[in-house]
Amino acid sequence: MRRFLTIMLLAGIYCPGFSQETGQTFGSYLYEKDKITLTLSPPNNYTLFEMEYVRQSRSVSSKEISRGTFEVKNDQLVLEEFPSRNHMTLAIGSELKLQAVDVKAIDQGESLYAWNMTYANGQTRMEGEWKRGKKDGTWIYYDEEGNVVKSEKYRRGKLKD
């Protein structure tokens, strides 16, 4: 999983964060089970795609599953697919966790976890890894100018000294 996330970061995928000013949820959320990523980007666009690590070429390939627009309604994220206008829904558990209610390619009740968030100005706010639904590895937190303000190490969801 660490290699997969590192490759996604190196690929330069833009992953906006949670906007306190607008109350909108932005970010890239990973569904670990099938390596599906939901990217929410300003102003209100989404892309749902499946990632695959190709060992022979040491590269990541992606296949788009769905794209369109989204809006937040009563602690739910509603995705409207383009051009069909079909709707998919996720419950917003926190800025780091979304839960599938009715989403193409993701089982109902399954969770998606944010691994990279940014400030409204586009600077990375935090980044980290997940393993089996728990924080794992190094989580790095930045200020609005991009300076590291804190680094934490997790193992199986527990903060290490």
Describe the protein's architecture and organization.
This protein is mainly beta and 161 residues long. It is built from one helix and twelve strands, in the order H-E-E-E-E-E-E-E-E-E-E-E-E. It has one helix spanning 2-10, and strands at residues 27-31, 36-41, 45-54, 59-73, 76-81, 87-94, 97-102, 111-118, 124-131, 134-142, 148-155, 158-160. Strands 1-2-3-4-5-6-7-8 form an eight-stranded antiparallel barrel. The two termini are 23 Å apart. Residues 1-24 have low confidence and may be disordered.
Search tags:
single chain; 161 residues; mainly beta; 8-stranded antiparallel β-barrel; 1 helix; 6% helix; disordered N terminus
Q: Strand portion, in percent? A: over 45%
Terminus-to-terminus distance: 23 Å
Strand order of the largest sheet: 1-2-3-4-5-6-7-8
* Class from helix and strand fractions: mainly beta
